[in-house]
Amino acid sequence: MELISEINGKLNDIVWGPVMLALLIWMGLFLSSETKFLQFRKFGYMLKNTILGVFSSNQHEKDASGVSPFQAVATAMAGTIGTGSIAGIATAIVSGGPGAIFWMWVSALLGMVTKYAEIVLSLHFREKNSKGEWIGGPMYYIRNGLKIKWLAALFAIFAMFACMGTGNATQSNSIAIALESTFDIAPWITGVILTAIAAGVILGGMRRIASVNEKLVPLMAVFYVVCSVVALILNIDKVPAAFSLILKEAFNLRAAGGGVAGYGIMTAMHYGFSRGVFSNEAGLGSAPIAHAASSTKDPVKQGLWGMFEVFFTTIVICTLSGIIVLSSGLWNTGEYQGSALSIAAFNSAIPTLGGIGVTLATIFFALSTILGWAYYGEVCIQYLVKKSEKAIFIYRCFYVAVVFIGAVGNLDLIWSISETMNGLMIIPNMIGVIGLYRVVTRLTKEHFEK
Fold first, then answer.
1. What is 11-448's CATH number?
2. What whole-number distance in Å separates Cα of residue 164 and Cα of residue 161?
3. pLDDT per residue over 144-185, tens digit each?
4. pLDDT at 114
5. DSSP 52
């Protein structure tokens, strides 16, 4: 285990080093500039055509070739509104300081247009599989758009491994910790129950996953927001100080190990961007896989949902989580980590009920993520293996087994490996998005000139 941890640590330093951070910022700024800062210029239009139009009939239309636009969104949101919004933000604060939240905001504002571009490309270059269903993602727009087959395959391989960590093991691990902290339930018991639930849904394929997430995601999102708002109202006197601390520590020039907490600007940026990407997946290339399954014919309309996903998961959900953690004063005691810190923070605001509420939210967030990422891995298998039916079944069985392994595994190593896999996915995806940015700008222009 020590050798694995050491190798992963060195690789992590490379993929999440200053060069990667600079490239992520540059990509967001470049795409924002090329689309004339679409995320700000068309923010109202985005809201009108996404969350404010969720009850429109065209958001729920589907056919034999794909799931409904809203089901595709729900599956993608299931992947993004995971434990990155609860445990991830707590880990970012502990490891990178309060300033990490500011850099999460930056990653989100730039990431809104990055994710928009990914989804537009995913729908534009998608294909139909042997069952006549739409499938797509970075590997398809890299192969069909850039014509670089080896790079497309590389993304699929990285994504398949990331599915096991980011979308699976870290999620079941957070559920196990939350249930152990709140109800003293042994992790192995949680692992057995989660494995059984995951098997029942995942073995049914995309349509069953989408059907479950369509109901689960809106419910859990509203529940968590309500709990968070109540906690903030009860702690309202501490909220201004929390925001002040975020802004102060975001530009802290102390070297690591100096000052009170030892956080420097690069540390805050590192954890802010990596956990930001973990929470909203902008630049990662995972969510476009779910969106490609939508029956919608307009890539831009589906891309608007990507913008909303980033805004809601990071600017809204992660900010609520982060302010509650900072307001509790427990983040720098060294007593808690991950979801346990979030639970303790909610408990300090709403005794007993707060911990129960965030535990339930963690369970539903993480479970929906496990289901959503299961589909991402299936599409990667379909891309890599020609006769994929048997391979997909083997993958599903292995994926379900990892649910149990994650529940009883080590949190630090699981999070670290997941973070590394995320970084590796970004590299080929970034090449694909930047290489095809003119397609994005053309389709965007055509949509708004109709």
1. 1.20.1740
2. 5
3. 999 999 999 999 999 988 888 878 888 888 788 878 877 889
4. 95
5. G
